[in-house]
Amino acid sequence: MKEIINKLAEDFYNDTLHNRRHIHKHPELSFEEFETSKFITSKLDEYKIPYKKGFVKTGIVAKIEGKNHKKSIIALRADMDALPITETLESKCKSENKGVMHACGHDVHSASMLTTARILNSIKEDLEGTIYIIFQPGEEKLPGGANLMLQENIFDGNKPKAIVAMHVQPDIEVGKVGFKSGKYMASTDEIYLTIKGKGGHGAMPHQITDNVLIASHIIVALQQIVSRKAPAFIPTVLSFGRFIADGATNVIPNEVRIDGTFRTLNEEWRAQAHKEIKQTARNIAKSMGAECNVKIIDGYPALENNPILTEECKKIATQYLSKKNIIDLGVRMTGEDFSYFSQKYPSMLYRLGTLNKEKSNNAPLHSSNFSIDENALKINSGLMAFIAYSLLRSK
Fold it and tell me: Which terminus of the chain faces fewer neighbouring Cβ atoms within 10 Å, N or C?
């Protein structure tokens, strides 16, 4: 079966390439993937694969039933949304939607998943069960399309024994894939601080509360939550990327805003850290004559790859690609709303290498010149199909 699937991935490659380039050329933001959804359903119609659409407006769930279709159920997931980034890299499939770009590789996810579905549909008489294939909106934006789709009975009341997803990785060479068992990706909380006090003339600091200085003290103090209060064995990140003090050279504003992100891999410490952040920011502001309003928005939970499923998929991938092309991954502090699936079902997300050193396509994710070696499309469409086929037969 490995040879059959590999041959089908090869045979369908030109179509996979066309699908990826079309989706890349016409990117859409989170929860606005209307044309992307239409394109994907048109391809599913062409491949004669049944599906339901309209989940969270643009989401799609295809369904492939093999023989003994009630014997085993698994699911595969790909996300569809792009980012608010202007693409700077010149190519034949450069984004035509101004200010929107597939800078996180979701075009690769969707296009290779379409071919995975096509392969599985071609061998459905050999499938020992049913496969749900999820095309998900809104991975890049809270509250996350995964979270919302799970509230809409996408599995018809059934319970998959496993859910598998993939994400591209631009610092892994094409041809290789990576796995990490257990806790893998961080929770992603948003922090909004507003420091309010009495602004005024910068030359008369004794008559005002220096809200810019207070905000600076708060940022420095909050870093000590990571360096001194976070348990040393729990990865933790607190970063601030926005500091708005709209005064002038000699004007201290009445209000200063600071926005940032908090990330960790432990839910108990996550809750405790929220309390520490609020208490520290408020107390420092109060001690200096101002007040600080703190708003923390809970983002995605940490992603945990089911250990048993991960090891099983790693063995299957080794069989398909050989041991030299399988690598072990470390923890990442980026987030992924696939974590909502991992909270409900045994789940696993692996990484697909897209780097070609000769082509120097090593720009990071979420950058304006991000690109891939398109050979990765062929590798993943076959690998994902072989994983699905094998998991249905696995105990």
Answer: C
**How many domains does the chain divide into?**
2
Quick check: 351 and 178 in contact, CB under 8 A? yes
Name the domain boundary from 297, 322, 348: 297
Task: Please tell me the distance from the alpha carbon of residue 279 to that of residue 273, in angstroms, as a whole number.
Answer: 10
Across 6-10, 301-305, 354-358, 387-391, least confident range: 354-358
pLDDT of residue 371 exceeding 90, the answer is: yes
Indicate the length of the chain as a whole number: 395
Looking at the predicted structure, is the pLDDT value of residue 378 above 90?
yes
Q: Helices 375-393 and 307-321, interaxial angle, to 10°?
A: 120
Amino acid at 213: L
Indicate the Cα dihedral angle 64, 66, 70, 74, nearest 10°: -50
Residues 80 and 133 in one domain: yes
Order of strands, sheet of 51-55, starting from the edge strand that comes earlier in the sequence:
51-55, 59-65, 130-136, 73-79, 162-173, 347-355, 177-179, 326-328
C-beta separation of 113 from 135 below 8 A: yes
Q: Are residues 167 and 311 in the same domain?
A: yes
Angle between helix 2-11 and 307-321 (nearest 10): 70
3-state secondary structure of 85: coil
- Provide the domain limits for residue 165: 2-185+302-393
Chain centre to alpha carbon of residue 246 = 33
CATH number of the CATH domain containing 273: 3.30.70.360
Is residue 193 within 8 Å of 294, Cβ to Cβ? yes
Phi, then psi, of 174 in degrees rounded to 5: -60, 140
| Rounded-to-integer distance, Cα 369 and Cα 359, Å | 13
Q: How many CB atoms lie within 10 A of CB 220?
A: 10
Distance CA(287)–CA(182), nearest Å, equals: 43
- Our CA dihedral for 263, 267, 272, 275, rounded to 10 degrees, sits at 60
Chain segment 240-263, per-residue pLDDT in tens: 999 999 999 999 999 999 999 999
Q: CA 329, CA 183: separation in Å to the nearest integer?
A: 11
DSSP 201-231: ETT-GGGS--HHHHHHHHHHHHHHIIIIIS-
Domain final residue pick, 278, 297, 316: 297
Instruction: Give residue-wise pLDDT tens across range 330-370.
Output: 999 999 999 999 999 999 999 999 999 887 678 999 999 99
**Residue 317's pLDDT is what?**
98
